[in-house]
Design goal:
The structure is a homodimer of 336-residue chains. By secondary structure, chain A is of the alpha/beta class. Chain A has ten helices and 15 strands. Chain A folds into two domains: 155 residues, Quinone Oxidoreductase, Chain A, domain 1, CATH 3.90.180.10; 150 residues, Rossmann fold (3-Layer(aba) Sandwich), CATH 3.40.50. In chain A, the strands form three sheets. In chain A, strands 3, 4, 5, 6, 7, 14 and 15 form a seven-stranded mixed beta sheet that branches. In chain A, α3 crosses α4 and α3 packs across α9.
């Protein structure tokens, strides 16, 4: 156990691809806790596309001030506690940041701290049973509402959320068209995850391929990407289609020049709905989603693809992999 | 009564502002009716923005073929009938087109033919109790769902649908911000129709004015316009906001260069919904909507602003007024 608290702080705003140069490395004393607080030792960090906008703009949380510890989902162990709900030895997940030790009050803001159930390993807690799996389950099933016979399209399909959406859609028996970047990801999506078709947006004309892969149109679109891919799908939606907006990663690295969309009028012609959501708003649905995900994991019909980078010092590099297509499935950083 | 059937047919596709030069004038014999059909003499034509896209692209109906009678909502009188549901003397509304006489089977496609109740004059039947009033009522109340304390923004607010949305929103006791073009329309919206604020998009910065007029954000947006105005409103929506897409007139006259939107990511941050709708899908809600509209008309709390152009020969000019801002309220053409 390190006796110091190593931290990455945001040192400049990345007006382009996010890299290690936007963060400063520093070492602080391990913090003391107050009444109602507990100390968490970080073991794994979660890498999520939303971290990029957090560094540069107000989103559903205020923009991270310069000089503060970089925000990040994480899993860790409670080391000391003055909080009645948490005891030393508890394994927990929450937004603990890029650091060895974090002080928490149990999550009074938008981000909850949750206890990791016994028997669940930390990478699985941060992917299948974490924000990632919950986002996929609730976004697809509550807002996408696929019906038998539907065609579901997923963008960013080889990413953490997308790869679960593909598998959950397949479990619901609908036709699944996955959009991802690169032949190897596309192969993996069809041969390993059960997508009916995969479109390589880097090499193929997405609109033309959608016409082939979704000949009756797109009933549900789970979008992690935005921009040209969203426009191409809008052009193919059916009457009453549901577009679930989870993310818009195509615009995150150059927000001022984020891609516009030109086909929103299709929502009128097709009487369709485009809805943004944030999983933290739907905590009342977590138990049901976890129950489904646990059952599918137990029967082996869903799997969590994990991509681990070793060492807190590599956290910025791990985050940047999300934007270069380096990761497949959930990107984590192993801290200790 | 003319013994001939004068008609405007679509003669070319207007790749820009729609004018009389895109239509051909011809005279045909009054058509004969078959079993199950009836003959309608057109008395008033309804001018609607959607007619413009019908001339150039597939929408929720196929693009109108060249050489066919221009499609148009209308009201008229049944002259002869071989249809069990319609008798000579019945006043009816339906999509009868730019012509003196139309043969109808009662409306088996997307557009219904409805009987006009006794005591309702034809201009009111085509505005308050027609597609226009139904669109405003159902779009705002079923899909916008304004709650007490909400701020509702309406674009194209001085148009036919918009002016009803403003009045219905005011009747629901919410704060109403109307967006229209020109000082006189804005004055009319605040002094006559009860909007709390009006923004003149031709002269004012819509985003800056929204910040003043909707300081707590926009909970419901009823959009007839799209483009820059939609983007400006997206930038101001509250968490859980409902954006109801009724039209996107800013792109109708130059579809290939229709305005893009850049702020759709706001739907994610604000967990908001953007939904297109078409009133014809919601016939089961018509009786309730008509009942509300009739009650408000009887108590004098809603009024139908009507703008009438005289003569079938002026139908193309009347339609073009929708795109130049010439009309206030419902644009009609009096045929006979």
């Amino acid at each position: 156990m390190t006796a110091e608290n190593r931290q990455w702080v945001l040192s400049s705003r990345p007006r382009g691809p996010v890299t290690a140069e936007h963060f400063g490395w520093r070492t602080q004393p391990v913090p003391a806790i107050d009444e109602g607080e507990f100390l968490v030792r970080t073991l794994y960090l979660s890498c999520d596309p939303a971290q990029r906008p957090w560094t540069e703009m107000d989103t559903y949380i205020p923009m991270l001030p310069l000089g503060e510890v970089m925000l990040s989902g994480a899993a860790g162990e409670v080391m000391e506690s003055n909080h009645p709900g948490f005891a030393p030895g508890d394994l927990v997940s929450g937004v603990f940041g890029w650091q060895d030790y974090a002080v928490s009050d149990g999550g009074t803001g938008i981000f909850p701290v949750t206890k990791i159930p016994p028997g669940v390993d930390l990478p699985t807690a941060l992917s299948l049973f974490g924000v990632t799996g919950l986002t996929a389950h609730i976004g697809l099933l509550e807002f996408g509402r696929p019906e038998p016979g539907d065609t579901v399209v997923v963008s960013g399909a080889a990413g953490s959320v997308g790869s679960f959406v593909v598998q959950i859609a397949r479990l619901k028996g609908v036709r699944v068209v996955a959009i991802a970047g690169g032949a190897s990801k596309c192969d993996w999506l069809t041969t390993e995850l059960g997508a009916d078709e995969a479109i390589d947006y880097k090499r193929e004309d997405v609109g033309a391929r959608l016409a082939e892969c979704a000949p009756d149109g797109v009933d549900v679109f789970f979008d992690n990407v935005g921009g040209e891919i969203l426009d191409a799908v809008l052009d193919r939606i059916t009457i009453g289609a549901r577009i679930v907006l989870c993310g818009a990663i195509s615009g995150y690295n150059d927000f001022d020049h984020r891609p516009a969309i030109r086909n929103h009028y299709r929502l009128i012609i097709r009487r369709a709905t485009m809805r943004g959501f944030l999983v933290f708003d739907h905590a009342e649905r977590f138990p049901h989603a976890i129950s489904d995900l646990a059952a599918w994991a137990a029967e082996g019909t869903i799997k969590a693809e994990i991509d681990v980078v070793d060492g807190l010092e590599r956290a910025p590099d791990a985050l940047s992999r999300l934007f270069t297509g380096g990761n497949r499935g959930k990107q984590l950083v192993k801290v200790a």
